[in-house]
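Discrete fold record:
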Amino acid sequence: EGFLLGKVGSHVKDTISDSQINNVKVETNIFVYQFCTFVKPDSFHNKQCQISIDKMQAAVPSGYQLVGWYHTRRNASPRMSLREKNIHRNLLALQPTGNEDNFLFLMFNMYHSDNLSTHTVNYNFYQFNSNYNRYVRVPAVVCNLGDTTHTEYRNNETSTVNTETGVFASIVARHEYVICSTCI
């Protein structure tokens, strides 16, 4: 179990056609940059699925936004259990107002063959849809995996690396950079 850290980005997509003068669509993307793993199960909640706010705030570093949580199971159904739904509902109650629809649950299911030669990990993102009062699967898009020379121009927000936080920022902060006036 653990938390998913990242950011939520929205942009407006405006298309103009002959039949409609203006067609505006707001697209929301949830970017996951990092994860925070708990060593013991039930670290941020108790057996009744009540969330410990102190443990949750201590686990999320400053400068990060909590965008979801994850859980790993072995040889289990890819559907959410009642326990996972209760934990998710309690985490949703702690989210800022207006951010409830953008909170994710990531479930990992691990399987292996009978002779242990092949191991498979499946994953599903879930999101609570308040309009239908149920959990729906969310498609996952992995950035920068593919041939970009044969794809169309993308004008939407692409966020592959967060330069303010994470590993990149810690590496830059550890080193001192000297700018030489004679260097090109």
Observations:
- The first helix runs from residue 53 to 59.
